[in-house]
C-alpha cells in the first residue's frame, strides 16, 4: 500500500456506495503483511468515506501490529467494533521488553556515590 493509492480507493468506495443502499462496509485487512502508516491512513479515509455515505465501517482481520498502529495514532475507538485496549500492547508483550533509563545506576540518585559492580567475594 502506497499513500498515492488512497484517493483511488476512496473514490472507488464512494462510487460503490452511491445509491447502493448498503449500510455497512467491511474492510478485510487479514492479508496485510507489513502494516504501516499508509495502511492506517487508508483505513481512516475509507472510514470517513463510508460514514459520509451513512454507512458503518468495520475492520476485519487486523493483526497485532496493525492494531497497535491504529491505537498509537488515536483511532482505536473509531472503528466498529472498536479496537480493544488489550490489543494496544506491542507484539511480544511487556514481559519480553526491557525498560530503558538514562540514569547511570537505576534507582540511585545522582548525589550518591557512583555504582560499582560487586566483586564475587563480597
Describe this structure in words.
- With 122 residues, the protein is an alpha+beta fold.
- It has a single domain, classed as STAS domain (Transcription Regulator spoIIAA, 2-Layer Sandwich).
- Helices cover 30% and strands 8% of the residues.
- It is built from 3 helices and 2 strands.
- The chain has helices at residues 6-17, 37-52, 64-72, and strands spanning 24-28, 56-60.
- Helix 1 (6-17) runs parallel beside helix 2.
- It is elongated.
- The model has no long low-confidence stretch (mean pLDDT 75).
Mind telling me the CATH superfamily name? STAS domain
Radius of gyration: 23 Å
Classify the beta-strand content into a percent band: 5-15%
Count the beta strands.
2
Q: Tell me the quaternary state.
A: single chain
User: What structural class do helix, strand and pairing data support?
Assistant: alpha+beta
CATH topology: Transcription Regulator spoIIAA
Q: Order the strands across the largest sheet as they lie in space.
A: 1-2
N→C terminal distance: 59 Å
Helix content: 25-40%
Poorly predicted ranges: none
User: Per the principal axes of the C-alpha atoms, what is the gross shape?
Assistant: elongated
How many distinct domains? 1
Give the CATH class: Alpha Beta
Mean pLDDT: 75
Query: How would a textbook summarize the main sheet?
Result: 2 strands, parallel
CATH architecture assignment name: 2-Layer Sandwich
Order of helices and strands: HEHEH
Amino acid at each position: 500500500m502506497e499513500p498515492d493509492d488512497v484517493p483511488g480507493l476512496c473514490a472507488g468506495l464512494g462510487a460503490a456506495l452511491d445509491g447502493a443502499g448498503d449500510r455497512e462496509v467491511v474492510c478485510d485487512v487479514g492479508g496485510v503483511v507489513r502494516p504501516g502508516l499508509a495502511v492506517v491512513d487508508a483505513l481512516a479515509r475509507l472510514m470517513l468515506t463510508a460514514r459520509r455515505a451513512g454507512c458503518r465501517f468495520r475492520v476485519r482481520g487486523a493483526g497485532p501490529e496493525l492494531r497497535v498502529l491504529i491505537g498509537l495514532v488515536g483511532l482505536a475507538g473509531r472503528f466498529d467494533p472498536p479496537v480493544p485496549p488489550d490489543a494496544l500492547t506491542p507484539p511480544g508483550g511487556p514481559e519480553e521488553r526491557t525498560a530503558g533509563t538514562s540514569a547511570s545506576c537505576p534507582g540511585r540518585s545522582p548525589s550518591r556515590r557512583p555504582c560499582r559492580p560487586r566483586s564475587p567475594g563480597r
